[in-house]
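Fold this sequence, please.
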Amino acid sequence: MKKFDISKVINFAIMLLCSILFAVIVEFLVFNNKMIFNGSTVKDNTYLNFTVLENEDSTVHLVSNNIQGYVDKICVTFGETMPDAYDIIINTEGFYGNSSKKVINAKPFSREKTDLVNVKSYVNSIELRFSNSIEIGAITVKNRIVFNIYRFIFFFFSSFLILLLFFYRKVIAGKLEYGFLMVILIVGILFCIIMPANTSNSWDEHIHFSKSYSLSFLDSNVKWTEAASLFARGKANFRENTYEERRKADKTIDGLNGLVDYDEQYQSPLMFAKVGYISQAFFLWIGRILKLPFHLVFILGRLGNLLIYAVCCFYAIRYAKKGKAIILVIALLPTSVFLATTYSYDPTSIGFSLLGCSVIVSELLDPGQKLSLKKAAVFTFSIILASLPKIVYCPLILLAFLLPRTKFRHRKQEKMFKLGIFIIFILILIAFILPSLFGKPLSGDPRGGDTSVVRQVRLIVANPISYARILISNILSRLSDLLFGKSIISLYGYRGSLNNNLYYLILALLLFAVFTDTKSEATNKSILLTQKIFILFIIITITALIWTSLYVRFTPVGSSVINGVQSRYFIPVLYLIALLFNTSKIRNEISNKVYYLTILCVPAAVLLVSIYQIMLKPLCF
């Protein structure tokens, strides 16, 4: 029996304590230092006197000159009506005595008559501009010491991750999957906690939450609270812009716990798609059992999605005999991580696709080693689970036909295995096609306009050559942007995207991994040309299915432009695309410690910076 090493526990505890201490120091000495030391800070609750200027263009300007010093926030109290938005112009004095202006576009918190706005500047004067007349009760300065729990959590986890990567760098050099697990769990938890608790963050998140919530009751006798029904309709965005408003939003949500009558609006006849919601529904159920406040139950559901994604990608990297770095970069793409921390079934498709493809490619690289029952089962069930939420990925299971005769004990075993794979492929197609033709969604997705599954399919069957032209022209016009643009690499749904520098950094890292990840633990250094041709055929088939599925369900009948195709649909096949360009002719002699740590630390740093810039600073300060 291996002897228990107490020193590892002590080292881990020291890292935790150092991270806590660092986060406390940053919170008080960096973000609260103006209020603590009170140098040239304006006193808290100081009322601002304003001169009102009404212009000929009906705009109203309020100008205050009775303020000199540092202002952390201002609180504007409105009367009966509130503006949708207004501008705050801060006049400041620079280091050389020159004046400068800072413009803040303020959007009031939707549930109260007060609006708290971050200023965080040394102020000479403040001007508020409204598009029309507005009643204002008071405007006060808020300069007080605030312990921001979201900021504390961010700096605690960020410093803890840095320490983990540094002290376990030797472990990561030998087992990259553990480095991935450190990054995805810590960064993912930060996303889950710091991202506002509502369903207005990601694509169709309110629909995915609605289905997950219903499934958490096993789709029977669903108890809809007022908060849950708001989330299911996408109506719970309170437009919080500060830490205080974020806390108020969470408290408001938790108070909406009364039961209401609500019928789920987004019914689907495809019960198989619910596989992508199981982990989210399970953690929602746990949250209710624990009687947690609703906003924490909601965050727990996000964590369920994160965990299933993390486990799939962990084993995809572990099983990969070649391309570990490629899988890691794809799994840590900002868009991939963002999806894994929202309500969506995309992470299920992405995670299990990476796992299944990793297993089958590793088997192809070792033609002399027999296919084990475990690996055959992992591949088969991974592709099935990836395809159930979205049938377009089911052709991935046909990769099993690439396995050579040498992978099996005898010819009969090979025939039985491949026949079983083909039968599974046909059954998946039948299970999806029949409900689509004879179930409820004959009209297609109403969000697409005049849609109809039956009429669109009949049109394709009657005009196959015309449709082929439409399909090819749509694919060629958008494919490069879909595969290499910001939306597949660095888009955070409705929260925005990375700046250009960070986007190009991640794109460069992905390309670097594709051409340099030539380290192989298998007999063969790269897959054969004939195998690459078949993989290309699978990729083209999936691409055609993605566009066709959106043409049938989301595009008005007869349109020559296919609507609704998004970059995230191609993340599950990025690994296969990368393998087409990966070659053993490039020799990578960089040590594993340097190579893998670089591949790991760059996306980790980009993710932390993006959380700070896109989530924390604009929404929780």
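Residues 2 and 346 are 41 Å apart (CA to CA). The first strand starts at residue 51 and ends at 54.
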